[in-house]
Amino acid sequence: MWIARRRLAEDLERWRLEGWVSAEGEAHIRHDLLERRHGPGLPAVLAILGVVLLGFAAMSFVAANWQDMPRLVRLAIIFSGLTGAYGAAAGLFARGMESFAHAAILLAIAVFGAGIMLVAQMYHIEGHPPDAILVWAIGALGAGVLLRSNPALAAATILFGIWSGWEMGLSEQVHWPLLVAAAFLGAAFAFHRWWPGLHLVSILLSAWLIVSGYMMGGPITHWAVVGIGLAISAAAIVVSHLARRRTFRSGPELSDSAAVILGYGMIVAYAGLWALQFLQHMETPNLVGLAAVTIMLLVLAIHQGLARGYRGAVWLGYVGFSVEIFALYVKTVGSLLGSSVFFLVAGLIVIALAALAWRLHRVEGETAWERSP
Predict the structure, then answer these.
(1) Rounded distance between C-alpha atoms, residue 24 and residue 59, angstroms
(2) Is residue 136 in some structural domain?
(3) CA-to-CA distance for 367 and 353, rounded, in angstroms?
């Protein structure tokens, strides 16, 4: 995975300074890492950006001149655009230019979406507007699965997110069908073994869960979001612990995946806690108590990130802690006594946690020293 390669590259210099790896060995390892790198390069990124611009240019041109064209010509433009884009993708794949082939597939997806909108306009098809986005997303998902195109799957993820957000905006209710779409997307990304795509699905599900909690409202739903986030974080810590003990054969990959899952669990749990503190009416003593619990959980998350080498979790904990303190100050600024009591309690809690962490660290060091020969 790309996380493991990055971590290895960061450790190489330290190993060389410790004398465990020679300078020549470090150079060979770095060269091998670069040779095996499968991430998109600058030409691929530029090609995809260019295709996005071409797609918008085509949609704008056709939309501007649509009324002046006969219907047969309109349909011919749509189908020729689809055929040409997919044909170009096939030719580029045959020449080994996979990055540009994926860009051509994205162009075909853009043409497909424009075709849906323009055909509906041409034949005056009226219906539920998000359904058009759903058809577009399903087409992108099919193209990504059949042609093994990760950029197409990424586009499908974005389209499914727009579809679900539009549905929730119109109905003002939780949109459960997104879970089915997310399951298909996750399975497709896992089958392709493209882990950045699983990030996209995790972001989609986290956003859906948080928005659903806010939309349903009430302390019960926010507590449910907190519980789900904490359960995800706890599961990630358990999986990481088992992976480090080599309980599973694919320990390193599971450990890296656990780091990612821990971060998303933290985000979900904190979003629920933030809503409970600052969107619900709460008396000052209850607010102080809940804020203290939140700070303790953030400190625990930072500790887990430091102990297990998860820098993302550490930084998320720092950001959450800063946002928490600032929001509390803004909410309690009218009550200087309440603010002072809270910051006093919070400061004492953090100092106590620091002393406890130092004590545990010292005990672990003494135990390790006694066990060493």
Answers:
(1) 54
(2) no
(3) 21
